[in-house]
């Protein structure tokens, strides 16, 4: 899994807590929509030997829908790091980081728009 550190995240979370309900719903929708795009991109690019890893990819919304965790899960998801980073016997076939990189600008634009529209 890739960790992304965001400067000012604590301040943003405090701001989200004070957000009007309409703006909060807009933010939740922007996060869910973009998380769904990343999930679909992961599913379309993951190397498939069997469909186990592909089928285990899912999005888990947390923090009242303001955080999305998108990755292979469960007993079938344990192979994700072998596929993403490779092994001594198998070359890396990244799908998680490239999916994030491909979709991050749209994600940032949508979230930024919601924040700009706050009054």
Task: Provide key terms for this protein.
2 strands, 5 helices, 119 residues, 10% strand, elongated, two-stranded antiparallel sheet, 56% helix, mainly alpha
Radius of gyration: 16 Å
Could you list the spans in which at least 5 consecutive residues all have pLDDT below 50?
A: none
- The overall average pLDDT, rounded, is 87
Q: How many β-strand runs? A: 2
What is the tally of helical segments? Answer: 5
Relative helix content: 55-70%
With strands numbered from the N-terminus, the spatial order across the biggest sheet is 1-2
Bin the strand percentage.
Answer: 5-15%
Can you walk me through this structure?
By secondary structure, the protein is mainly alpha-helical. 56% of the residues lie in helices and 10% in strands. It has helices at 9-17, 21-45, 52-56, 80-85, 96-117, and strands spanning 57-62, 67-72. The longest helix is centred in the N-terminal third of the chain and has 25 residues, at 21-45. The N and C termini lie far apart (35 Å).
Please outline the helices and strands:
Layout: H1 9-17, H2 21-45, H3 52-56, E1 57-62, E2 67-72, H4 80-85, H5 96-117
Antiparallel strand pairs: 1-2
Helix pairs in contact: 2-5
In short:
This protein is mostly helical. The chain has five helices and two strands, in the order H-H-H-E-E-H-H.
């Amino acid at each position: 899994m890739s960790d992304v550190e965001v400067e000012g995240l604590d301040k943003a979370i405090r701001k989200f807590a004070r957000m009007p309900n309409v703006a909060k719903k807009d933010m939740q929708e922007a996060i869910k929509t973009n998380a769904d795009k990343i999930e679909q991109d992961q599913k379309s690019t993951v190397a498939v030997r069997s469909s186990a890893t592909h089928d285990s990819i899912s999005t888990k919304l947390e923090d009242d829908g303001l955080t999305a965790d998108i990755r292979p899960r469960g007993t079938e998801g344990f192979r994700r790091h072998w596929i993403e980073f490779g092994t001594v016997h198998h070359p890396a076939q990244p799908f998680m980081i490239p999916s994030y990189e491909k979709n991050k600008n749209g994600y940032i634009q949508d979230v930024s728009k919601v924040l700009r529209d706050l009054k």
